[in-house]
Amino acid sequence: MVKTSRRGPASIIEPVDLGTAALVPDRDRPDGWTLLVDGVAQSHVDLADPTYLEFEYMRKLASVVDAAAPSGAPLRVLHLGGGALSLPRYVAATRPGSRQRVVERDAALTALVRRVLPLPRGADLRVRTADARAAVEGTRAGVFDLVVADVYRGAQMPRTVSSTEFVGHVARILRPDGLYAVNVADLPPLAFSRIQAATLRAVFPDVCVVAEAGTLRGRRYGNVILVAALRPGGLPVDRLSDAARRDAFPARLLHGADLDRFISGAQPMTDEAAQDSPKPPPGLLT
Fold first, then answer.
1. Fewest C-beta in 10 Å: which of 43, 91, 176, 279?
2. Pick from 208, 197, 193, 210: nearest CA to 245
3. Residue pLDDT, tens place only, 246-263
4. What number of other Cβ atoms are within 10 A of residue 111's Cβ?
C-alpha cells in the first residue's frame, strides 16, 4: 500500500514476514527514509549520504566501526539484524572493499528494503535470511574482524542472543583482534544491561559500556552499547570515549573500575535462565 502525500515521495506500507513495514520519507532530507515495523522505528537511511546516521545508538555502533582499524582499511563484518541496512551502508562508504555479511530473519522485509532503498553498487554486501543464533553457530572460526548485534523482535532483544553460550560462539568466529558490539535497549535501573555486561565479561577479556549519561543514571529508557575485545587491552577505549563525548547527545564510556561498579554483582546469563530484554514503556516507541 502507498500512502499519498501532497509533496515529496509517498510512504510505502507493506506486510512483511514478521509484521507490517512502513518506509516513511524524511521531510528534512530529500533522500532520507525511516523504516518502521509494526509502528516501531527500526532504521533511518539517507541514500545520498550513507554516512549520515539519524539514530543516536547507530552513531555509537558506527564509532566502533571507525575505531576497529585504521581509517579506510577494509573490514570483515557480520551484522546480526538487518533492518534497512544503515550500518552496512556506512561501512561500505567509509571502508571500501569491506566484506560484509548480514543476517536478517525477515525475507520480505529485506526484499522491500532492497527494492526501495537500493544497496551501494560494487559493495561486497550479502544478506542472508536466517536466525541470528543459528547463523553464528554455523559459521567457521576466525572469520570476522567485527560482529555487530542489533537483533530485535519488535522492541525486545531475544533471549537466544543474550547468553554466555551465544557470546561464546561470537568469540569463536572473530579473528584474534576482533571486536563484538551489541545494542541493548533497556529500562531503568538497567538490570538487563548489567547482566549483559557481566555475560560479555564471562567470555571476553576486555569489555566496555557506552550510553547517554541520563540512561546510565537510570532516568530513562534508552540504548546501551556494549563492546568487547578478544585480546586483553584490545578495546580502543580512548577513541570510543572521544566519539561518545563529541556526539550531539554526549555519552559516557564505562571501563575497568567504572564497569565493575556498573555490573555491581550482576551474574552472567546462561541459556538455562536466559530472558528477552524488557519491553519498552507503553506508547514510547509509537
1. 176
2. 210
3. 999 999 999 999 999 999
4. 15
DSSP secondary structure letters along 252-270 = EEEETHHHHHHHTTPPPP-
Cα dist from 240 to 50, 76, 273, whole Å: 21, 20, 32
Give the closest residue to 155 by CA, choosing from 183, 191, 196: 183
pLDDT, tens only, 121-137 = 999 999 999 999 999 99
Q: Which is it for strands 206-212 and 251-255: parallel, antiparallel or unpaired?
A: antiparallel
Report yes or no: 101 and 78 within 8 Å, Cβ to Cβ: yes
Q: Which three cell numbers stand for residue 148?
A: 555487530
- Among candidate residues 122, 152, 162, the one with its CA nearest the CA of residue 43: 152
Inter-CA distances, 217 with 214, 220, 224, 238, 251, Å: 5, 8, 12, 22, 11
What is the 8-class DSSP label of residue 105? S
Residue 164 grid cell: 554466555
